[in-house]
């Protein structure tokens, strides 16, 4: 049973470009969470999705950031017009959902904005 | 007040020592509790869930005190490989949100 997969592992973008981060949850998991971690800081919740639904996006900036989890394919976190402050590690986690709240993390995508 | 609070440390302990971390949470509706371990520049990994009756996994023991709203992690016979940041995580089923503490850094010294 493959774990949570994220790609790319490292992403370099110039200011103003778009960044697309992908997350494939563990098999059988239908809940996906995205977190951001700045250097030397804790994980900050960004968004919680189920298939085709955004359940809670209260941690995501209102502008430039969007997320989706389509019926088929991975979850995508999209950052438009990136700025230097977007440089961080972005982790995706998945869980089964109701009845089993344990969540498992992917290896993360390290975004560097130059 | 932060929703989940941890002492950032670092806790520097010699090999073989016993070390304990506490974590307090503010939302009394919180229902599930976890300890995660995060190594430098890696993803958090689930160490153990924390049950009301307390639970043990080898050298690790977790306790939950709902009345005082804190959880603890005890590590016995510390190994060099235990050096990491330990994250306290609280989950409220009503919101399906996981709230992470900022972590406690542990350094086990030879």
Distance between the termini of chain A: 37 Å
Rg of chain A is: 13 Å
How many runs of DSSP E, i.e. beta strands of chain A? 11
Please, what is the average pLDDT of chain A?
A: 92
Helical percent range of chain B? under 10%
Total helical segments of chain B: 0
**Terminal-residue CA separation of chain B:** 37 Å
| Most extensive interface between two protein chains, with residue counts | A-B, 24 and 22 residues
Sketch the topology of chain B as an H/E string, one letter per element: EEEEEEEEEEE
In the predicted model, the low-confidence regions of chain A spanning at least 5 consecutive residues are none
The shape of chain A, in one word, is: globular
Largest sheet properties of chain A? 7 strands, mixed
Descriptive overview:
The complex is a heterodimer of chains A (114) and B (110). In chain A, 0% of the residues lie in helices and 54% in strands. Chain A is mainly beta. In chain A, strands 2, 4, 5, 6, 9, 10 and 11 form a 7-stranded mixed beta sheet that branches. A 4-stranded antiparallel beta sheet of chain A has the order 1-3-8-7, with no helix packed on it. In chain A, a hairpin with a 2-residue loop joins strand 9 and strand 10. Chain A is globular, with a radius of gyration of 13 Å. Chain A starts with a strand and ends with a strand. By secondary structure, chain B is an all-beta fold. Chain B is built from no helices and 11 strands. The model of chain B has no long low-confidence stretch (mean pLDDT 91). Classes of the chains: A mainly beta (114), B mainly beta (110). At the A-B interface, strand 4, strand 5, strand 9 and strand 10 of A face strand 5 and strand 10 of B.
């Amino acid at each position: 049973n493959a774990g949570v997969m994220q790609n790319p592992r490292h992403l370099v973008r110039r200011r103003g470009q778009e960044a697309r981060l992908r997350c494939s949850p563990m098999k059988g998991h239908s809940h996906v969470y995205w977190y951001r971690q700045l250097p030397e800081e804790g994980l900050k919740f960004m968004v919680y999705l189920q298939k085709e639904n955004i359940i809670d996006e209260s941690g995501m900036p209102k502008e430039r950031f969007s997320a989706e989890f389509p019926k088929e394919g991975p979850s995508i976190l999209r950052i438009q017009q990136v700025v230097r402050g977007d440089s961080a590690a972005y982790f995706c986690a998945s869980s089964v959902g109701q009845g089993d709240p344990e969540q498992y993390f992917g290896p993360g995508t390290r975004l560097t904005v130059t | 007040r932060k929703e989940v609070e941890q002492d950032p440390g670092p806790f520097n302990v010699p090999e073989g020592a016993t070390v304990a971390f506490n974590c307090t949470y503010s939302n009394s509706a919180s229902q599930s509790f976890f300890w995660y371990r995060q190594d430098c520049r890696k993803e958090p990994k689930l160490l153990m869930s924390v049950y009301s009756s307390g639970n043990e996994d080898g050298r690790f023991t977790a306790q939950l005190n709902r009345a005082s709203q804190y959880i603890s992690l005890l590590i016995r016979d510390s190994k060099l490989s235990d050096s990491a940041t330990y994250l306290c995580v609280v989950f409220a089923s009503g919101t399906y949100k996981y709230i992470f503490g900022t972590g406690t850094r542990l350094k086990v010294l030879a």
